[in-house]
Write a structure and sequence with these properties.
By secondary structure, this protein is an alpha/beta fold. The chain contains 16 helices and 17 strands. The protein has helices spanning 10-13, 21-31, 46-57, 77-84, 93-105, 112-115, 153-171, 189-195, 197-201, 229-247, 259-270, 284-290, 308-315, 319-325, 330-344, 391-412; strands at residues 2-8, 35-42, 62-66, 89-91, 119-121, 125-127, 136-141, 144-149, 176-185, 207-214, 217-226, 251-254, 274-278, 299-304, 348-354, 369-375, 380-386.
């Protein structure tokens, strides 16, 4: 079973709007055993829509179209679908009454363009849109389903979840698909691949391994396809066990939880708390921590000590330490971590100081040099990292490395 996604809109091609619909749809289709094998973004033109539909009909079982269903003149998806299916627009009374109720509740007048929202192709089945005025449309011809939905994400998602998925499951025989995702940190994609090459080469044809790299981490996703989910789960067990034998120390989670979420879970379970003192990361470490719901249970606060005088006056770093060793040094971050832990009376504290670039580097401390320290109830440790010459990636990698230092320490207790 192959699925295809077509997004319609000049704003997508011009980069004025980011296409988040395709990403979300791909994930949801995959959950029910459908693989998206083709995705395209096209302009708001009759020729582009007709051409895309014609090509898609030859290669896909399910074709999902988003966009072009609004009330303005550039929204031509409905009329073009009529042309493609040799149909005509007809009034759907139920949709009309729904649109009228929306405008009545908002105390707004109905324009003729709004009335047009109730006109739908005669041969389509209406997909109810409880969040807007543009209904979705389901066409079925020659064993292929064509599903047209609004481009507004929250409208599209509701239609897809409530209307489309149940219909797909009713009409099509879907295969079983099972995913297991493992998140790694501290090892690059190519080095990771080298370490698990024998495992990957031994995978059966119906089990695929995908590498999903991001800044500072790589996700490994095993996808097993077949007719029996229980059988697929049994097949994956020895593969997963082998994976842990090969790279277990680099795996920080199975599933989609971030490392900040994993650290938060451990801190919560052990009733411990933490504070941060940040220089080169500019508050990004605290940002990752506080993105997690419930982080107020374990995150006490932070001091953003970008300038040396703040390190000295607000955190309590000895001025001589900075004069002798520099702000980007083991001695400085150790004092930052230990002093902030004492100041905020926390169980743990993290500190970062580095040269994010693009300037400021030296021969001994090139751009990308970052020192990270972790203060615990019994000791303080520090590590030096070289994160390269990209400022944004250095900041992100520094924050992730700090959280990984904390996670590793928490696992020892």
């Amino acid at each position: 079973m192959n699925a295809e996604i077509i997004t319609i809109g000049d704003e997508l091609l011009l980069g004025q709007v980011i296409d988040t619909n395709s990403s979300w749809l791909g994930q949801e289709l995959n959950k029910i055993g459908l693989r998206v094998h083709y995705k395209s973004a096209i302009s708001d033109s009759r020729e582009a829509i007709l051409s895309s539909l014609f090509e898609a009909s030859k290669r896909s079982n399910i074709i999902i179209i988003t966009g072009g269903l609004g009330p303005t003149k550039d929204d031509i998806t409905k009329t073009t679908m009529c042309e493609f299916f040799k149909s005509e627009l007809v009034l759907n009374q139920k949709v009309l009454e729904w649109v009228q109720s929306i405008f009545k509740n908002r105390n707004l007048p109905m324009l003729e363009s709004n009335n047009q929202q109730a006109m739908v192709p005669k041969n389509c089945e209406v997909l109810w849109n409880r969040n807007g005025t543009a209904p979705g449309m389901w066409f079925y011809e020659n064993g292929v389903a064509y599903i047209s939905m609004p481009g507004v994400p929250f409208e599209m998602k509701t239609i897809f979840e409530e209307e489309v998925i149940p219909k797909i499951k009713t009409i099509f025989k879907l295969p079983s698909i099972l995913h297991r995702t493992f998140q790694t940190i501290g090892i690059g994609e190519s080095f990771l691949a080298k370490r698990i090459i024998l495992l990957e080469d031994a995978l059966p044809a119906h089990i695929k391994l995908a590498y999903l790299p991001a800044v500072g981490s790589v996700r490994l996703r095993f996808s097993a396809f077949g007719d029996n989910k229980q059988k697929l789960a049994s097949e994956l067990e020895p593969i997963v066990a082998h994976l842990y034998q090969l790279i277990g120390e680099a795996i920080f989670a199975e599933g989609e939880n971030s490392i900040a979420e994993i650290v938060g879970e451990i801190l919560t379970a052990r009733k411990k708390n933490i504070a941060t003192a940040e220089s080169c990361t500019g508050g990004f470490l605290a940002h990752l921590i506080t993105l997690v719901p419930g982080s107020s249970n374990y995150f006490i606060g932070s001091i953003l000590s970008y300038a040396n005088e703040i390190k000295i006056k607000e955190i309590g770093v000895n001025e001589n330490t900075i004069n002798q060793h520099g702000a980007v040094s083991e001695a400085c971050v150790i004092e930052m971590a230990s002093k902030i832990r004492t100041k905020f009376n926390t169980d743990y504290a993290l500190a970062t100081s580095g040269i994010a670039g693009p300037s400021g580097g030296t021969t001994l401390k090139p751009v990308g040099t970052v020192w990270i320290a972790l203060a615990t109830p019994s000791h303080t440790i520090a590590k030096c990292f070289q994160f390269g010459d990209n400022r944004e990636r250095t900041i992100q990698r520094s924050a992730l490395a700090a959280l990984e230092m904390l996670r590793q320490e928490l696992l020892k207790v």
